[in-house]
Amino acid sequence: MRFALTTTLRKLQIEVDANTTTDPVKVHVSYNQWYAKDTSSSGSQNTSISTTTITDICDAPLQAMPKEIEMINVYNPDTVDHVITLYYYDNGTRYIIWKGNIASGSTYTQSSTGAGMITDDTGSAQWSAGTTGGGGGGYRYFRLNITDWSGASGTAPPTATFVKELTLRVGATTVQTADMTAASSPSPLVASADSENASHPAWHAFNNFQEIYGVGGTMPRSEYWQSGATGASHWLQIDIGAGNEVIPTAYTITLVNPTSPAPYLKAFQLLASNTGAFAGEEITLDSQTGLGLADWDMYTTSSHNRPTLFEISAHGVSGYRYFRVYIDHWVAGGTPDSEAVANPVRVNEFVIQSGGTDYPTADMTTYNAPSPYVSDSASQHNSFPNWKAFDGAADDRWIIEAGVAFPKWLQIDMGSGVTLTPNQWQIKPDSAVSLGYYITDMRLYGSVYGTFDGEETLLDTETGITGWVNSTAKTFTI
Questions:
Q1: pLDDT band at 119 (very low <50, low <70, confident <90, very high)
Q2: Beta bridge partners of 477
Q3: Does the structure show a pLDDT above 50 at 133?
């Protein structure tokens, strides 16, 4: 995962679980600092930490001089192990980048181009089961913690709980791409649970992927995970393997075949961990309570159910700060998807609507003013920069240069502390629609972190758009 410190209110921090015994924990952060659109220089910051005080390890940048983080290296020379938490600090809010144990004499390294890894003090890299953060900020272990379940009649929980299938998703991609055939097969998947019925083990909740998603298998199967007969709560877990760490954006749960009564889950949490211990180091990705049978996507006349989708709002944060529109297809000068035509993609205004308010709420005068708004794009014409899609001018515009490869995108950052849950959005073309310049297909994404590397959420997809009118906005519903 890439991290960028783009405002004077963002920085990186570290927290150590206990005071060091002999030697302080040492941190090295390297970065590129940008002074202009095409000009940057490398820099670094070294820090030593011997107490539990949360400490800055990469200072906030100066105004209009963002830092793009290249590597974070944490070395533990102390005689005891330490649990380390790395934070992305944003104007008073801390987001966990990574949390895990670093053994005495070992190093944790996270780079923008590779997965996190644990190395010993000789510098030889090794994946360390249960300690690697991996995936540049993702998670390896995921646990469904079930705290309440019921029959269809709403009676007290039965003696056991059931899950036919649990899958994780990043955007439109399902993390699990193969059916499990045993508790640890195929490698590197490992399934487990607090308890299981001998005929319905934990891995049965991960072996129906192909049939449920319609890519193979024979439906229906009567295989599922069934917990033990006692206990006020139960959990089901999947280890996706070192080097495969992800930050999921959604997950699905498929219930067992409808019986009488039909058991369903009423309350649960999806937890994520880098260590697999689930002893306080984990984070809660999603929490559901008070669910009824009507909340589940169930067939009532067939012998199998459909997966029910649950969206993950970025580590419990409600709403999104960053919004990006990807332009997939367009017409330029009357020619579909032409890269040869000068200035092929043109947008007069891009507006996010939430709670009856249009955002940005003030007209932009440059890419980072007025505060807190910041605009960005895949490319821009020198005379028509991206911020002109947010300046409120009647026929001003953002224009992307000819020949720019996909993806073609335009983005707005609403500012630190602002999270929106939009219900509509608008794109307004310029006055060149009548000359054959308009968009036909596009996607809107929302993000909490602004990295757009898999943590974002698809909010809307529009295809085959027609009927554009010069300088007239179209409104799309999310």
A1: very low
A2: 424
A3: no
